[in-house]
Amino acid sequence: MGQRIDVKDLNIYYGDFLAVENVNIEIEPNKVTAFIGPSGCGKSTVLRTLDRMHEIIPGAHVKGEVLLEGRNLYAKDVDPVEVRRDVGMVFQRPNPFPTMSIRENVLAGVKLNNRKINKSDADDLVEWALRGANLWNEVKDRLDNPGVGLSGGQQQRLCIARAVAVHPQVLLMDEPCSALDPISTLAVEDLINELKKEYTIVIVTHNMQQAARIADYTAFFNLKAVGQPGHLTYFADTTTMFNNPQNEEAERYISGRFG
Amino acid sequence: MSSASNSATTAAGGKTADKVFKGVAYACGILILVTLAAVALFLLFRAWPLIGGDQAQNVAAIESFTGNKAHNFWQFVGPLMFGTVLVAASALIVSFFISVGIALFISHYAPKRLATALSYVIDLLAAIPSVIYGLWGGIVLVPAVYPFWNWVATYFGWIPIFAGPAANPPRTVATVALVLAVMILPIITSLSRDIFLQTPRLQEEAALALGATRWEMIKLAVLPFGRSGMVSASMLGLGRALGETMAVLMILSPGLTYSAHLLQASKNQTIAANIASQYPEANALGVSILIGTGLVLFLITFLVNFIARKIVEKASV
Q1: Max Cα separation, chain A?
Q2: DSSP H helical segments within A110-237, as ranges?
Q3: What are the extents of the domains in chain A?
Q4: For this UniProt entry, which segments traverse the membrane (chain B) (predicted)?
Q5: B126: distance to nearest CA of chain A, Å?
Q6: Residue of chain A whose Cα is closest to the Cα of B216
Q7: Any chain A CB within 8 A of the CB of B314?
Q8: Domains of chain B, start order
Q9: How many angstroms separate the CA atoms of B283 and B288, rounded?
Q10: Which of A49, A91, A95 to mutate to test the interface with B (most CBs of B within 10 A)?
């Protein structure tokens, strides 16, 4: 089941540079929350703080709290590796491991930390994850072929299968469809609708129609000028955001009269 | 060259520059082939008395080289080939893991400043002439390393290659391998480091986002990506070790056997060191024989590179 995320007074830094300031947001479990906003406003940066991927860049750090079901992910005794097992991530471009077969890709996360899994459990898990990613019927006869032999859309669904195979509570998606054609995009969007029954989903997208189609809640990020920190400008349920936004900046951005 | 590219401001000049550059590039490419062919022909030509000359004289010359131990060319060059490959392979085995370790440390663990400093030091190692390594090996390492080899022979002597007693002074394949390992370390390290740094960020993040530790990320993303690069780097290192002359000559106590007891002295000799040690005193026929062994070394190196290329091709499919 999905878990809720509460972000409290989060300031995100790259070295000394404050990239995003003072984010407060409540992300509901088993809903899709979309982050939208102009380039450079920090929406991907915020997303990457939710599984502590932000800090893999040297000098990057945060101040504030991210609570996953009440547990602060940035508490001193929390291991980021453990956080990333609970919070899965799908990236802008599909990134299956190039030397691995489809099957090995799905199992890559499961086999980490010296965990052993016997063959029949592994078979079941592969089928379950690939079915969950709506990919099973397309690849079931060639599970031992390389993952990179699939089409872009299939690869992205393979990456989703790989992410769900470790049974996360939350799935983060950083513009998952930006490298895909419209048909593959539709397949992934349908999948996101299915996945929210099991997981809390946060998605960054540049495509406002996409946000309107799939998100339950939408957060609009903006920045005053280049070099200034980004911030969360407006957060609302998606219907309000796109039909009757109570915020002028958001309204201008959505109606395309931005800047 | 520079005048051609300076005049390349107009469209016509651009075409000329293009042609000039094409010509220069072709010439460079062909030059390397011509050089290689020239070396091969030289070796073959100078070694010809050995192949086509009076065999009775050859036998006599080889017997005088080896103190009557070898009676024909293959008996002579066989142990040398074995020694060459043994020394080079031992050096590569020692160097490979250390080099990859250093490369990974520089590319993925060390803070930026330390990484820069370390890269600099490693590149500096490559600039030290091999005669210096030979001196250092002979004067410093040989006396200092004996207790270690003695310890190895005592506790790991049950492994055939470490069978004792350890020679003292240890002018042995094991000591030479250590020195050669240091000599080939820079090239393997810097090439591996470059390839590790090129690992696609997306692959690394894919691994980390699945909950991989740093080491697991390296196993999942960095090493598979760098595999073919590591093989090529090793082969370049091996090539250098196969041909290394001075350091071997100055450290190793030579012998002509097929022994793989790394800790015992006077068992092996390499082709290159053998040429260097016997060349000054050899007559015309002796030189031909030595050049014949050089031809064999040339072929071994060629073969090693060929095999490496095949491995890389297979790995990158």
Answers
A1: 57
A2: 119-132, 136-139, 152-164, 182-195, 208-214
A3: 5-41+51-255
A4: 24-45, 80-105, 117-136, 173-192, 245-264, 284-308
A5: 30
A6: A112
A7: no
A8: 26-316 (1.10.3720.10)
A9: 9
A10: A95
Instruction: Return the pLDDT at B64.
Output: 81
The shortest C-alpha distance from B202 to chain A (Å) reads: 6
CA distance B86 to A204: 58
ipTM metric: 0.89
Q: Which of A56, A97, A166 sits opposite B211 (nearest CB)?
A: A166
Which residue bears the tokens 């080099």? Answer: B99
Cα–Cα distance between A257 and A105 in angstroms, integer?
Answer: 43
Q: Report chain B's C-alpha Rg in angstroms.
A: 24
pLDDT tens digits for range A85-133:
889 999 988 999 998 999 999 999 888 876 788 888 899 999 999 988 8
Residues of B in contact with A93 (CB under 8 A): 202
Sort strands A32-36 and A217-223 into parallel, antiparallel or unpaired.
parallel
Task: Yes or no: say if B305 and B221 are a contact pair by the CB < 8 Å rule.
Answer: no
Query: What pLDDT digit, counting tens, does each position of B172-226 carry?
Result: 999 999 999 999 999 999 999 999 999 999 999 999 999 899 999 999 999 999 9
Cβ distance of B211 and A163 shorter than 8 Å: no
Considering the domain A5-41+51-255 in this protein, what is its CATH number? 3.40.50.300
Alpha helices in B47-106 (DSSP H): 48-52, 55-66, 73-104
Closest CA to A161 of A88, A247, A111, A74: A88
pLDDT at residue A257 in the model: 67
Cα–Cα dist B209/A94, whole Å: 13
pLDDT at B1 (0 to 100)? 43
